[in-house]
Write a structure and sequence with these properties.
five-stranded parallel β-sheet
Length: 350
Amino acid sequence: ITYKVNSRDTLVGHVAGWIKDLALCMDSIDVVCLAANTTEIRDNVRVHSLGKDHGRRKIARWINFYQTVWRLRENTDVVFCQFSPEYVLAIAPMARLLGWPIILWYTHRYVGWKLRLATRLADRIVTASPESFRISTDKMRVIGHGINTEQFIPSDSTGGEHPVILAVGRVSPIKNYELLIDALDIVVHQYGCKNLILRIVGGDEGNAPHNYMKHLNQRINRAGLTDVITLVGPVPHDQIVREYQHATINVNLCPTGGMDKAVLEGMAVGVPTLVRNQAFAAMMGTVADLLIIPSDNPQSIASHLLNLLNMSQKDRQRLGVTLRQIVTTNHDQKLLIKRLDAVVRESAAQ
């Protein structure tokens, strides 16, 4: 059970790749989702869209959900709920009736009553890192993230005329783009680095405050950075690798919590990646001091940006090799699927 199956989707395009690889381990997979565009799914996968993409109302989707799941009752061994605890709450009564174990994938810093209840109802919780699931439970299994390192690969190009700073993620306050704009103001106007570009790639997915995009544009205008910063908007998942490949630095200013896949994607492409999220500290090892920003002070962020901008191209490439190795070793998609497959079989056997 997942939100959407569409390899081009800007938020969850990677899900289609996970399903394709997981299908290699299973006799069959039935995917129940709110919306779908299934042009690249394997023969042993059936996708059941609840019709949000065709304008079906919420009550109709709920009815369709239970009708669909009931039809699948004879051929299901395990239920895997991806992203939302609400999926666990929805399926739990039928899962208990039919004896299906429930596995929940959750990677977010937020903990609410729905997640607490879902944790009680689920048989296993899988997550990307210990910091990505903030409820103490012996049900939790840390299995890493799943980055397609065959898709997210470094470029042979040495870059363009100007350094490019990249920030990828939905336009939302949790991404702290205001901090990034303020830090760039310091880099440009205090330190005179005028020949650079910041590209903020992502769209408003409907959960940002009213006029939030307008708010960011006004902040950019007040800082005199309209020629430096571009709010690019959403880019399809199957095209986003090009943004990373043309970037000099990748920046993600989310607070400590779930491992943002945009950080790992940038690292997989070999882009020096700055983060505030302390969940990456242990993984980054000897380069953590260079890449993890210890505070939300714009001056500190600017200082870290300058350190990377002032590195030679050769040193940045060497750093990029280290970062890609971290992802391929710990967060490769095939490795995630292998670990998930083990949890599925463990749950089914009990």
